[in-house]
Every structure is written in C-alpha cells, then in structure tokens.
Amino acid sequence: MFTGIITDIGTVATVEMRGDMRARIDCGYDMATVDMGASIACDGVCLTVVDKGQGWFAVDISAETLSKTNIGAEGWQVGKRLNLERALRVGDELGGHIVSGHVDGVARVIAMQDEGDSLRLTFEAPAALARYIAPKGSVALNGTSLTVNEVEGNRFGVNLIPHTRQVTTWGAVAQGDAVNLEIDTLARYVARLAEAMGAPLPSGA
C-alpha cells in the first residue's frame, strides 16, 4: 500500500524486452534499505524490485500492466522521469490517501490553465472509471494523491500547487499527456455496495 505522497523522482536508465519488459530506474533511495522483492510505486504502478545496486533498481513489467497503464500507451523511454514512492510501513504517516498501486486505466490531460500560483488541469477519464470520481474526492494520478475539484461527465479537474510541481514530475506536464489513473479504493467499495443493494450511484460519482 502507498499514500500518494511522492518521495523521490527516478529516471529510466535502460529498457529491454525479455518476455516481460525490464527497466532499470536510477533513484535517490538508499538501496541498502530496500529489500529484494520490495514494492515501489513508479508513476503510480506498484512494481517489484528484482535487482538493485547503488542508486538504482530494476523491475519487470508484465503485458497486463502495459495494457492498463501509460507504460503501454506511451512507452518508457530512456531518460523519462518517474514519480516514486516506497511502500507504506506500519507507523508511517498517511499524508495522502490509501493507494494500492494497481492502476485502473489511463486518463489524458485535455486542458491546462494558470490559476493564481496553481495550475488547473482538466483530464478525460475512461467512461467506466469516471463514474467513481466525485468532487472533493481523491484520485491518484501518476502516483500522486490529488483532490478532485469538479466532475462533468468523463472530465474532471484538479489543481496543482507550486510545491507539488516542484517535488514531482508534474512540473513538466503538457496537454495531451497520458497519465496513470487509480480511483479511490473507498469510492470503489461504496459503488460496489450500492450496486449490490440495487441503489443508484450518487450524482457526480
């Protein structure tokens, strides 16, 4: 489990296909404190450390993961920067919201607008996922815990404050970017419960 609070920015160093895709990611973590088999969220995708060295770790990425994420939509090119977060440990502060690292699909940036010191982004989500996104609810976008401002059909908006843009890859966001979307786990369970009880989902959810 993760919190959606980014703790490092990694860089894709190598990518190769060997059945699954294997990527080596350079990072600032002290890898002596990261066990083999540990989970690290890379742009919101929970991946397993299969090899490591000083200042880097390697992960294998399955075809299923490629099909559900922007790794398959846009590829990981050497030099691509990634939001990183190590798995939550008992006793850690939950500063964002509960994030599983299991990406539900890909949303796309369709509009950008400066709003004071913040940047307002509008995304278009797949219809099957948009129903789980509600105003003032949480979403994880490229692994970052963000609060939803408004929802209109398949579109929703968020604001990025300067701090978020400085400590994540969001400082380089561009219109048209494909981003990994994970809906709020609580929203998913509420919707499933409502369906089981035969109740309609609330408007805007």
Automatic annotation (TrEMBL):
It is an enzyme of class 2 (transferase). It holds the Pfam family Lum_binding. InterPro entries: ATP_synth_asu-like_sf, Lumazine-bd, Lumazine-bd_dom, Riboflavin_synthase-like_b-brl. Residues 1-97, 98-194 form the Lumazine-binding domain. Lumazine-binding repeats lie at residues 1-97, 98-194. Catalyzes the dismutation of two molecules of 6,7-dimethyl-8-ribityllumazine, resulting in the formation of riboflavin and 5-amino-6-(D-ribitylamino)uracil. This is Riboflavin synthase. It comes from Paracoccus acridae. The lineage of its organism: Bacteria, Pseudomonadati, Pseudomonadota, Alphaproteobacteria, Rhodobacterales.
